[in-house]
Design a protein that fits this description.
By secondary structure, the protein is an alpha+beta fold. Helices cover 43% and strands 10% of the residues. It has a 7-stranded mixed sheet with strand order 8-7-6-5-4-3-9, with helices on both faces.
Length: 449
């Protein structure tokens, strides 16, 4: 590092106080990391002992900054995780040392090496560690809360969780809610689906009940595990159960989605769920079969029978919706991670997780693995009537994706089969739909700004 670089680094670090936030602070953080040649995001997160004195100094400063955002550098992106990594706070499950390839290393380093291996290889490694279920649950939580970006760890399935895991479930549920509502860089923009399922099942197995403040968790539980869904829903009182039902089953009119609904419906029958199933039956291949399934359950649960009676409908005057004036100003199809800004990469990550329910997925991983879905990725910038960039639409497979606030991970709406929905603002949905269908000049490659 030259004398001028050292002077510039000192000035940058002086501005990075714990209260620093905003674009200037983000730029300062990235500048400081670049000046000390900190490893980029494509490399392993360095062990604290591997840091140079200058890198250690920058890392220690960033460990005290809760609002900074920085680009693709190989260090934890949330302050709570950075402090654990550096040993400034009590180490967590991922910082405990394990034996890997004949050496003692933190668990996060071993899992980084195994990221590109098969699930079978990872399971064999974890099995060899002989972790207790309690230890596996702690690792499972930290991985799914993105303590270190992109790590993979074998799922803890509902059938493994017992009555002694209730405290972990309560602690983890509260931890997720805290991170969901945080105002600093620890905030997560989504509920980790598999982790939420494990936490709520653990609470129930331990004899507890679902707290009303956990409705968002109940609404995100993994819908592909009917027994787990039934166990959770069975303990939720109204009106929280209805809210959870609507979240678990973001219903798309496909036979697969309805079959999963029916599997849960048989275990935890409810009038609300019956109505949800029946509302889409006419769009399916065999609506009569679906109606017969619901009718069978209604014979043993009389309260559900009311859902089978279609109330007389009054012809309502059609309300004219004036779409919000929106325009698609740019569309492009990135083929490399480097063509995305850090914010856009986070949007792609959240879109992919919303789509397939795998909360270990990341944009970095999808591009690295040349995933088939990521090859169809399309980014759109949407401007308002004044030309201001207000929304980003991220889609893949031609017609599925998410709408975000410009440059943010705040989910505004979802795109399912090329239809914008999951928003109560009809005018906004109409405007977004028109913008989605626009065809501005398209470029296949666009460098990240």
């Amino acid at each position: 590092m030259t004398a001028d670089d050292s002077k510039e680094l000192a000035n940058v670090l002086a501005r990075l106080r714990p209260s620093a936030k905003g674009k200037r602070a983000d730029a300062d953080a990235e500048k400081a990391l670049a000046l000390v040649a900190f490893p980029d995001d494509g490399q392993l997160v360095p062990l604290p002992s591997e840091l140079t004195p200058a890198q250690q100094k920058v890392a220690n400063v960033l460990a005290g900054c809760a609002w900074v955002r920085f680009g693709a550098f190989a260090l934890p992106h949330a302050m709570w995780s950075r402090r654990r990594w550096l040993g400034l706070d009590e180490p967590g499950a991922l910082e405990r040392e394990v034996t890997f390839r004949g050496k003692r290393v933190p668990l996060y380093r071993a899992l980084e090496h195994l990221n590109d291996k098969t699930d079978g290889v990872r399971k064999a490694f974890v099995s060899g560690l002989r972790f207790s279920l309690a230890e596996r649950l702690e690792v499972f939580a930290d991985v799914h809360l993105d303590a270190y970006r992109g790590l993979r760890f074998p799922r803890v399935v509902s059938a493994e969780i017992g009555k002694n895991d209730g405290d972990w479930g309560t602690r983890t549920a509260n931890r997720i809610i805290k991170l969901r509502t945080a105002t600093d860089d620890s905030r997560i923009g989504f509920v980790p689906q598999y982790l939420a399922t494990a936490a709520l099942v653990a609470v129930i197995q331990g004899g507890g009940s679902i707290d009303a403040t956990w409705a968002d968790l109940a609404a995100a539980i993994a819908g592909d595990d009917p027994v787990a869904v039934a166990a959770v829903l069975g303990t939720i009182p109204e009106p929280w159960r209805s809210k959870a039902l609507g979240g678990v089953f973001k219903i798309t009119a496909t036979d697969d989605a309805v079959n999963r609904l029916l599997a849960v419906f048989r275990l935890v029958p409810s009038k609300e769920l019956a109505a949800l199933i029946l509302s889409v039956k006419d769009k399916l291949k065999d609506p009569a079969k679906v109606l017969a399934e619901v009718s069978r359950v209604a014979k043993r649960v009389p309260t559900i029978a009311t859902a089978l009676v279609e109330p007389p409908t009054k012809k309502q005057p059609r309300k004219h919706v004036v779409p919000v004036a929106l325009t698609c100003t740019r569309t492009w199809a990135p083929r490399k991670l480097a063509e995305l800004t850090p914010a856009q990469a986070r949007q792609v990550t959240l879109m992919a997780r919303t789509y397939d329910g795998d909360d270990t997925t990341s944009a970095k991983k999808l591009f690295a693995e040349k995933d088939d879905n990521i090859r169809s990725l399309v980014m759109r910038e949407i401007a308002d009537a004044k030309g201001k960039h207000v929304y980003d639409i991220v889609t893949w497979l031609a017609d599925d994706g998410c709408v975000f606030r410009a440059g943010k991970t705040e989910l505004v709406a979802e795109v399912v089969q090329h239809q914008v929905g999951v928003s109560r603002d009809a005018a906004l949905v109409a405007g977004l739909q028109l913008a989605l269908e626009m065809r501005p000049k398209r470029s296949s490659v666009r460098k990240a700004r």
